[in-house]
Design a protein that fits this description.
By secondary structure, this protein is an alpha+beta fold. The chain has helices at about 10-30, 55-75, 160-170, 210-220, 235-245, 265-270, 325-330, 340, 365-380; strands at about 40-45, 90-95, 100-105, 110-120, 140, 140-145, 175-180, 190-200, 225-235, 250-255, 275-280, 295-305, 310-315, 335, 345-355.
Length: about 400
């Protein structure tokens, strides 16, 4: 004997729900065809074709019966695809009207994660809107003078190369780029790359060809941006990937200012910073942010090259340490600093991120050289790239927490 789902529901309403379900099924299946999905659910908003039922409890039960009838039909059609009530890949909503049924297919957001390497300087991580016109391109009725009508503070971004490619591959309507921290515009991201997630709304497809997609992104960027470890992840992975920053490893090029020379024992003095906690007041170059004192530790220092005019270090630090200010001291806002230890005003003229969230990771010199060659080649083909050196004025930064 079959147990009824809702025994208190009158038989005529149960039969009517079954009839509506059978009539709606073809339309449900038709609307599901354009979408790639592994899991699904079905909903029936009120009144669900039972507006004429005066008893509101019977109306609710009849609508619930219709929903379960549709789910039974779809289970039979898609035996390999599970019914999932929380964030299914595809939600089919059926609104029953007097003149028929309206079906709406709603695919859930798809998330594609990976790591990116930025081989040149002068490219921001995400779209960096002009501070003057805030991306509107016009100001006071004319083209914005600050950005010459481009709406951009920086012409190109990693997001420009990565997000549209991923959005196109999955056939989405729009995409957003989420990085695990970010580097300055004038800083390269080398090593294994920085973790990121791209979220795509209304995707028609939910699978990717990682190799082909990586090749497309490299081509779109002219070899300036590479991606690896591309994969589809769940929504729960978004926060984990973008908030687990971990320690960072940098290649830092230090030069003395005002024609001064580094002390003869500069290498030895630099290595004394291992384990030292820095007190860093918000740098002048990002003074628009809250004026706070952050305390971060230098975890390791390795000397790669030293002369009287140049010191190249590999430095591993706590996340959020301002590396440029660790070198310069920022007029006393960061203490202690390399400038203070050397007794000579110094500047960070080149900075590369070598590892993100990988404690103790060490970049091979050949890898840095390879990235440098790739960057020079790409820069020769792109007139909007700078020469890779830190500028006298504060380098443009994106909105977001500083990481170098």
């Amino acid at each position: 004997m079959t147990t009824e789902r809702f025994p208190e529901l009158p038989d005529d309403l149960r039969v009517r729900a079954g009839e509506i379900g059978r009539s709606v099924l073809p339309e449900l299946l038709r609307h599901a065809v354009p979408w790639e999905f592994s899991s699904w659910d079905c909903s029936v908003p009120a009144p669900g074709g039972f507006a004429d039922v005066a008893d509101l409890e019977y109306q609710r039960l009849a609508r619930s019966e219709l929903r379960e009838v549709l789910r039974d039909f779809l289970r039979a059609e898609w035996p390999e695809r599970p019914l999932v009530h929380v964030r299914p890949d595809l939600l089919l909503t059926v609104e029953i009207e007097d003149d028929g049924a309206a079906v709406r297919a709603e695919p859930s957001t798809v998330y594609v994660a990976g790591r990116y390497r930025k081989l040149v300087r002068g490219v921001s991580q995400t779209v960096f809107h002009c501070r003057g016109c805030r991306g509107r391109k016009r100001r006071y009725g004319a083209a914005c003078a600050s950005c010459e009508g481009t709406g951009r503070q920086v012409p190109e971004s990693v997001e420009d190369f990565v997000a549209p490619s991923i959005c196109g591959v999955v056939g989405g309507r729009s995409a957003a780029f989420h990085g695990s921290g970010r580097e300055d515009v004038d800083v390269r991201m080398l090593g294994e790359g920085r973790p990121f997630v791209v979220s795509v709304e209304v995707p028609r497809r939910r699978s990717i060809d990682a190799v082909a997609l990586a090749a497309e992104i490299a081509s779109r960027s002219g070899g300036r941006v590479e991606v690896r470890e591309l994969r589809v992840v769940g929504r729960e992975d978004l926060a984990r990937i973008t908030t687990e920053h971990g320690e960072k490893t940098y290649r830092v090029v230090v030069e003395p200012q005002d024609d001064a020379a580094l002390p003869g024992d500069a290498a030895e003095r630099a290595t004394t910073f291992v384990g030292v906690e820095l007190a860093q007041r918000t740098p002048q170059r990002v003074a628009r942010r809250a004026d706070l004192v952050r305390r971060r530790v230098v975890r390791s220092v390795r000397v790669l090259e030293v002369t009287s005019a140049r010191l190249v270090l590999e430095v591993r630090t706590d996340p959020g340490l301002y590396v440029k200010e660790f070198v310069s001291g920022d007029e006393g806002r960061t203490t202690p600093s390399l400038s203070e230890a050397f007794g000579v005003a110094c500047a960070c003229v080149e900075l590369d991120v070598l590892a993100v969230g990988e404690a103790g990771a060490t970049a091979e010199a050949s890898q840095v050289e390879e990235a440098g060659e790739a960057g020079e080649a790409a820069r020769a083909d792109s007139a909007d790239q700078d020469d890779g050196a830190a500028q006298a004025e504060p380098s443009p930064r994106e909105d977001g927490p500083p990481t170098s």
